Fold this sequence. Notes:
By secondary structure, the chain is of the alpha/beta class. It has 13 helices and ten strands. The model has no long low-confidence stretch (mean pLDDT about 90). The chain has helices spanning about 40-55, 75-90, 100-105, 140, 150-160, 165-175, 180-190, 195-200, 200-205, 210-225, 245-250, 250-260, 275-280, and strands at about 1-5, 10-20, 20-30, 65-70, 95, 110-115, 120-125, 130-135, 240-245, 265-270. Helices cover about 45% and strands about 20% of the residues.
Amino acid sequence: MILIADSGSTKTEWGLVDKGTLLRTVLTPGINPYFQTEEEIAEIIAEIITDNLSPVIGKEPIERVYFYGAGCATPDKEEMIQAAVRSSLGVPAEVHSDLLGTARALCGTRCGIACILGTGSNSCLYDGERIVEHIPPLGFILGDEGSGAALGKALIRDCLKRQLPAPLIAKFMERYGLTLSSLLERVYKQPFPNRFLASLSPFLAENIAEEPIYRLVYDNLKEFFRLNVTRYPGYDHLPVHFVGSIAFHYQEALTDVARSFGIHISSIEKSLMPGLTRYHS
């Protein structure tokens, strides 16, 4: 029995897998070794075992943990996660970046371009075994084009700078109970501003039929393709895959943008867990 974790900035999905069968998934808040201590991460892992997985596990021990996470691309952060798993479960852990997890889940053992569009965005060129090229996402301040955070930032900007029709601006501010001062407080003074910005993106999905909203989403996704996907050799003929809440909920706009670049999207998934289950089975 193995435990697989797909951890992003907003949430972590845990999958309990036995002999190739996904028995249960559990969602917890996001884990990131840049923002949390080893002790905090160990507590989260121990808590999900006790509260959510013990009835399923029974007397069968978890033999190994495969952890794919945001912020896990360096040896010191990998060791932090490994130590947290040892502390909470006493079993070995294989720790990799969320991007490698994305490539393995979406591409399996085949070459392709794997893309994440969730709270943040990311992409890579994968040769079937490893990531061979990677355009850095640069985070929600300098990059993360097409992400929930980037869409939320663009929505706030266009509202406050009166680029959207007045009725849409009023509808947005009322929908979230926002003011100029509260927006600035949440973005510049409170923790996890990227999560806050991404939490505003559902407004875009709810109003996607409005031409200015569709154009905002389309232009943001277009920047993701222009600055990331088209930088990889073979982008126009390799399989291109997407995962994440933004990719899933804005499939029509995403497909329209891809078509404008001559790109065919091979798959759009909401979750990596089914693909990771197949890969590790």
